[in-house]
Write a structure and sequence with these properties.
By secondary structure, this protein is α/β, with parallel strands linked by helices. It is about 40% helix and about 15% strand. The chain starts with 5 loop residues before the first strand and ends with a strand. The model has no long low-confidence stretch (mean pLDDT about 95).
């Protein structure tokens, strides 16, 4: 979701930077580590003595729900998603459900029937759990899915699930090395549907 169909970088980094300063964490070094993974896992990795990771993650989530200024859809994402049958796509995000729905609403992005959030998995990205849960709920094999991802953790999770991967670079500040197809937005992307239920993605140009 974040960095893939909408951009929440400005809002997320605003909240996390404040939290980092409160806990004496180097903001510049810390912010690149927050994207694409669950908040509780980000905090646990810091291994700060006496800090309740789940309680801190809940505090951060409340702040992020309250602060959605600057959140917007990735170019062409809303139109592309609206062109897909709702039962054929899912959102898999490291965000808690309430925050995910708040950000999707702020960006004007449609919400599909299947949305897998932080609460739905035991292990977050880079583990493949979220994509495996989503494919099961869609009623297809993960290997028959295409995952759109932007973060290293998300890409690794999709690969581990056996899905095809398209890397969305719209919010990347630096080029990444990847063997996967890359797109800067969805404006040139379209989907066509076969009589057998298959979906073919096409990119103009």
């Amino acid at each position: 979701m974040d960095g893939t169909i909408l951009s929440s970088i400005v809002a997320a980094e605003r909240v996390w930077a404040q939290w980092a300063r409160e806990h004496g964490v180097d903001v510049a070094a810390f912010l690149p580590t927050i994207h694409g993974v669950r908040s509780v896992d980000t905090i646990r990795r810091l291994d700060i003595a006496g800090l309740d990771a789940e309680a801190e993650a809940a505090r951060i989530t409340r702040r992020e729900i309250e602060d959605v200024a600057g959140i917007e859809a990735i170019e062409g994402a809303t139109q592309f998603l609206q062109s897909l049958p709702p039962q054929r796509w899912a959102i898999v995000t490291s965000a808690p459900r309430e925050l995910a729905l708040r950000r999707l609403s702020a960006a004007g992005v449609p919400v599909p029937p299947v949305i897998v959030t932080a609460e739905d998995v035991r292990q977050g990205k880079p583990a493949p759990d979220g994509f495996l849960v989503a494919s099961a709920r869609l009623g297809v094999r993960a290997g028959d899915c295409v995952v759109f991802e932007d973060s290293a953790a998300g890409i690794a999770a999709a690969e581990a699930a056996g899905a095809a991967v398209v890397v969305v670079t719209a919010t990347h500040r630096h080029a990444i090395s990847t063997p996967h197809i890359r797109i800067g937005g969805y404006g040139d992307l379209s989907a066509s549907f076969g009589e057998d239920g298959s979906v073919e993605l096409c990119r103009r140009g």
